[in-house]
Amino acid sequence: MASVHGALLDLKRLDRLAGGDTVLHRLDPRAKVLATLIFILCVVSFGRYELSALVPFLIYPAVLIAIGRLPAGYLASRVFLVFPFVVAVGIFNPFLDREVLFRLGDIGVTGGWISFASIMLRTALTVAAALTLTALTGFVPICRALVGLGMPKVFAMQLLFLYRYLFVLADEGGRAARAREMRSFGGKGRGLASYAPLLGHLLLRTWQRAERTHMAMLARGYNGMLPAAESRRPGLSDFLFILFWGGLLITLRLCNLPRLLGALVTGTLS
Amino acid sequence: MSHHIIEIEHLRHVYPDGTEALHDVTFSVTHGESVAVIGANGAGKSTLLAHLNGHLLSESGEVRIGHVPVSRASLDQVRRTVGMVFQDPDDQLFMPTVREDVAFGPMNLGITGEELKRCVADALCRVDAEHLAEKAPYHLSAGEKRRVAIATVLSMSPNVLVMDEPTNGLDPYARRQLIGLLKDFRHSKIITSHDLDMVLEVCERTIVLSGGAVRADGPTREIFRDERLLRECRLEKPLSMQGCPVCGG
């Protein structure tokens, strides 16, 4: 539970970063969400042996982090947190796909290793982009932007409530777990057997809280839909942002820049 | 006709498991009155409050707010008239920022634009929380949460304020601040609490619930002087009415 608590404190830190005041923070959330969606689509749509063409995409998170004055080290450490999961997903590729694609000196590099590296790089890119987006915009404005871009309101409501009560639930769970720990004196307590009722109680408490919250909402005239936030008109800078990144990312997707550069260099050398 | 009058007549409530939480409760609260409802744990305070804004509807007996019986048909009007502040502010603050939370009620009432802004600013100003407007509820301290929770209700300009344990979990300073705030409100107020010293300061009238029934109803000071009554209802004289523990004076 302690780690869950730590993760939540982390979420709060991301949230605080979104309170910054740079050009990027001030952009319309919709513009940022759209640019990030284009980025993710471009990155995941490459073939599975693609590696070199992915590298230039690092420019998107890198530039946003620099201009948005975000703590790069902190965001990078968050990206590394997902790697164990990715390794679990991709680790079988090198064993299943043994076809040698090219040779580096005496070592034959198989398709499996290439696709494994590609998966890692893609994950790093997409997670970095998503974290950067959150740190520049904040979770709630992102939800609103998604509604503005056509996501059904019910989903947005679910996400907002999830985000709001995540902290409350983690607090409650953390307290219960600590209480259990303090009475198990370094041992296992009664192991899993004591966790089951703990979780059950947590569920029941959540249920009761949901009921009280619903009561509080009804008491203030809730009629099935959260009122929409006042929307603002996207400005020139928002359009320029989309145009610039949309153009650049799609160009990078369509032509392999490192290969072009390579060809150019080897061309002039020969 | 005054919207501020609350009348409860022969109210009885039985929970599905057979527990009789309220038994023939009758009283009324008039315009501008400040009434405390006190009683031991399980005396029926929360059940009573749940009837005041129509969360529970009376099965037997009647609750009237401003002469209108609380029923499914009058729910909207009742909820507009009675502002309810919950015991746990976390239940009440569900929107992403304080400003949106305070605006939630008025927006549902159809208020928009400049009027909405003024309404929100006003409510926040009255609880001294303008500086918290852009914060997220989970970044607030307990005292701040409580004040904001009150603002979310004030923004709907209710005629009656109903509060469940308003001083629960506050530090002495935040509690003092809240008491000052409550004394300032000109609304009719119904407050449940175990903080009897606060009751003594804020409410001129007190109703004692015991086992789901009204055991006593009268001026707060008189009730708190009746030691036998308090003992029988599992209550105790407020500290400020007890002698000094050091000198006995």
How would you sum up this structure, described in words?
The complex is a heterodimer of chains A (270) and B (249). Chain A has 270 residues and is mostly helical. Helices cover 72% and strands 3% of the residues of chain A. The radius of gyration of chain A is 24 Å and the shape is globular. The model of chain A has no long low-confidence stretch (mean pLDDT 84). Chain B is of the alpha/beta class and 249 residues long. Chain B has one domain (6-235): Rossmann fold, CATH 3.40.50. Chain B has helices at residues 45-52, 75-81, 89-92, 98-108, 113-126, 142-154, 172-184, 196-202, 220-225, 227-232, and strands at residues 6-14, 20-29, 34-38, 60-65, 68-69, 82-85, 160-164, 188-192, 205-210, 213-219. Chain B has a 6-stranded mixed β-sheet with strand order 6-7-8-3-9-10, with helices on both faces. Chain B has a 4-stranded antiparallel β-sheet with strand order 2-1-4-5, covered by helices on one side. In chain B, helix 4 (98-108) packs across helix 5 (113-126), helix 4 (98-108) runs parallel beside helix 6 and helix 5 (113-126) crosses helix 6 (142-154). The chains are: A mainly alpha (270), B alpha/beta (249). The interface between A and B is medium-sized, with 25 and 32 residues.
Describe what is shown at a glance.
The complex is a heterodimer of chains A (270) and B (249). By secondary structure, chain A is mainly alpha-helical.
Using the coordinates above, name the CATH class of chain B.
Alpha Beta
Give the overall form of chain A: globular
Number of strands of chain B: 10
Spatial extent as radius of gyration of chain A? 24 Å
What's the helix-strand series of chain A? Answer: HHHHHHEEHHHHHH
Q: How is the biggest beta sheet of chain B arranged?
A: 6 strands, mixed
Average pLDDT of chain B = 90
Helix content of chain A: over 70%
Low-confidence stretches of chain A: none
**Biggest β-sheet description of chain A:** 2 strands, antiparallel
Strand order of the largest sheet of chain B: 6-7-8-3-9-10
- What helical percentage do the residues of chain B reach? 25-40%
What is the CA-based Rg of chain B, rounded? 18 Å
- Fourth-level CATH superfamily of chain B: P-loop containing nucleotide triphosphate hydrolases
- What number of structural domains do the residues of chain A give? 1
Q: Give the domain tally of chain B.
A: 1
Q: DSSP helix count of chain B?
A: 10
How many angstroms does the end-to-end distance of chain B come to?
49 Å
